[in-house]
Amino acid sequence: MMDREHRTSPHNMGNEHYPSLFRSADVVSGAAQKTYLLLQRMHLGSLVLASTIAAFTALATNTFSTGLHSAIAIVLVLGLLILWIARSRQDDKAWFDGRAIAESVKTATWRFMMNAQPFQTNDTVEDRLVSELREIRQARPDFGKRLAGVMDSNASEITDFMRQIRSASSDERKGFYIESRVRNQKSWYSHKAKTNAKSGARWFWATAGLQAIAVTTAIIQAVTGGLGFNVVPVLTTCAAAVAAWSQMKRHDELAQAYALAAQELGELESLANNPNILGEFSQFVEQVEETISREHTMWCARRDVGLSRRTGDRTR
């Protein structure tokens, strides 16, 4: 969910400004996502390939037919092996857990920088944040094994940039938060809502098109008494694979969730023009972070990963 451009303008916060836990979780989650989706594509591709080879068996001689059936068996075994590897690696769990940790750290970071609850006491606030980050990390001990390979032991959990923003004036903090958190997040949600809506429509029509071609081909086969080479099973397998991929990506659900989150942040952004917002800024930050956490909670709920109300993190 966080494939952001790393910009360092005064009005934007780059990944390098967040705690090292965020950066590590983001890297691990992104890598796990790529691996998981690659394995899923390979598995679905093996089914389509096996179906395509099977379509040629009707045209083959007995000798060649034996070779084709052997090829089908090999492809299906490879597909089964890929499925087993995907299950044993659990890259999907690492992807979801990493996203949950990264979002939790992000929320805690913004609350810290804006002097919002629960980081309003200056005396022990840094200790409180470090303890908060430790709890977020320890809530998912299995993910810690993956973090160990990318964590920088010399990196700071509280960056100088975070301290600089926290110590800035109220006006400066307000301007930075509205621009870098509210508007930036709203823009990201809007963009993702549009791209997911387009992708959802594209995969829907791809599935419908393949099924329509399969129906047409089946009718032609019935009318002509068979054409020898039957592509109907290939088309139906392709349609099923496309539908399975679309279901896994959940474009339509994400488009609706992102659009709603963008609308809610837009409404909150309009409140930022209130001249009295500085006196209620902590509550304003709370509302914004709750809105963002609520969207991510919905994202996690679809994948059996939960977030807490305060920082966005809890165990399953």
Model description:
By secondary structure, the protein is an all-alpha fold. The chain has one domain (18-111, 122-301). The protein is built from 10 helices and no strands. Helix 3 packs antiparallel against helix 4. It is elongated, with a radius of gyration of 25 Å.
Key attributes of the depicted protein:
10 helices; about 325 residues; disordered C terminus; mainly alpha; elongated; disordered N terminus; about 75% helix
Nutshell version of this structure?
Helices cover about 75% and strands about 0% of the residues.
What topology does this entry show?
Layout lengths: L19 H36 L6 H28 L1 H23 L11 H14 L2 H7 L12 H7 L3 H55 L7 H18 L1 H21 L9 H21 L15
Radius of gyration: 25 Å
For the report, how would you describe the main beta sheet? none
Number of strands: 0
Strand content: under 5%
Find the structural class using helix and strand composition: mainly alpha
> Distance between termini?
20 Å
Which descriptor suits the 3D outline?
Answer: elongated
How many structural units, i.e. domains? 1
Topology pattern, helix = H, strand = E: HHHHHHHHHH
Query: Spans with pLDDT under 50 lasting ≥5 residues?
Result: 1-10, 306-316
Give me the number of helical elements.
10
Helix content: over 70%
What is the typical, i.e. mean, pLDDT? 85
